[in-house]
Known about the structure:
Porin
Amino acid sequence: MDSLKRKLLFVFTLISSLIVSAQQVEVGLMLGASNYLGDLSNETFVMKQTHFSGSLFGRYNFSPRLALKGNFAYGRVSGDDKNFVSEKRDYVLNQNLVKDFEFNKYRNLNFVSDIYEFSMHGEFNLLPNDLNAYNSRPFVPYVFLGIGIFNFNPKTSYNNTTVELQPVATEGQGSTTYNDFKKYNLTSICIPVGLGFRQKIADDFFLGVEAGVRFTSTNYLDDVGGVYGSRSVISGATGRTGLHLSDRSWELAPSSDPINNPNPLSEAYVFNEGDKRSMKETFKNDMYFMVGITLSYTLRFRGQGCPQF
Length: 309
């Protein structure tokens, strides 16, 4: 116990000394919007799938050019094949090449996910931030690169309820048949990259705009990343819910209502085991974006550009 207390005291002392010795420390918030690129966005921006995002951050200015920012952010992302029902493409269906196949129409998937991110950003100011002149009003454009972790949980609407998709293993993950194909982790790594600018609007306040993309280490932000599994395997592993959500092409057949017919005939499904569920061509993994307006407040300590009276 004494060892733990000494360690905690050391960490507290270290953090306190960094803050006191810092040229300048800022705390602030960002309010804006989030979106994503992935399978259910057809790797394009869909403006109507834009949602609210926000973050709290602390910035430690090492010098007029360099800063380190800790960032805790929330955002929401979503996608829906119905946004692309009129698009056609060539597709290998059941080992046969089908020209001008309405892939999105028959895949018929959708999702929504809340994202909680903690990240650290290294910032480089393209113009110097005057840290010592209290009354200066610098304009500070900057770029940033960082690393972080985030939690996500794709969900969909099914039978008038909201269903979490990872537990029902829509591609057969974690079943005894596909025992090498594990369920994807709901916590993943992200690499934030972006740019912004901020303008000092008062002695201790900066107002700005920031936009950043998060490159992720997962292809399952939208629960889509591989191929269709066997219907019998999925049904045996996660029941009717997993079966019905793994391939929603059956919803286009009016007689395949899962309430009245819990086990739709195989003829109601368009896809079979091994058919591509993911049609990505440009990016291997999903990514998401956050953009917003920032407001930060400068914490001043003795000797840090304090006003002279």
